[in-house]
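Blinded run. Sample ID left blank on purpose so nobody reads anything into the name before looking at the predicted structure. Input follows.
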Amino acid sequence: MRSKRYKKLPEKTKDLDSESIEKLLPIIKKNCTTKFDESVDLSFKINNKQKKSEVNIRTVVNLPGGTGKNVKVAVVCEDNKTQEAKDAGADIVGSDEFVEKIKSGELNFEKLICTPGMMVKLSKLGKVLGPKGLMPNPKLGSVSENIKEAVTNAKSGQVEIRNDKDGNIGVSIGKKSFHDDQLLKNYHAILDALEKEKSNNTLKGDLIKNTFATSSMGVSYKVKLGKAI
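Blinded prediction complete.
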């Protein structure tokens, strides 16, 4: 059943011509009629079906405008690095005892960071951390000797870009309450990251087939990209 609020939103927006994100942001914000601060989200469909292999994208982007979310960050590190992690703003810090808690299924965090030395112990917990997308990864900056930088990035506006098996990527670029300039900076940071990923993959043709923008509880609109990616 659709709510009265939803029925008041524009209909058949997917049938409209694509527009630039600059023109769409005011429209999307106008459709944010819930009582909470809705997210502004992007959905990409990528050209992941290739003759020889599929395109797999997985990277992180530091959004210059932030995310508007308070991310609970946990750090697994050696005892001599615990204070550094706490000073950086980590919510949970621990060593061997913390690894045992994780092993038992205690996953009360949204991002897990560890030092290279502790990764050997965490690598055995793939069945626990993997399905939740919590396994630290050097490529994503979550396995690092520089704990301060890793925690700061995770806290200040870092998002992961990852396509599913059908070639879909979903990512938020901020909140309705954000100024348009913040959202646009985040949007372009995402596109820059995708363009970089395209160059890293042996891909023929465009990486992105189509793009849609919406809010958490709104309707979606086709986005016209400024350039082919």
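Unblinding after everyone has recorded impressions. Residues 166 and 225 are 21 Å apart (CA to CA).
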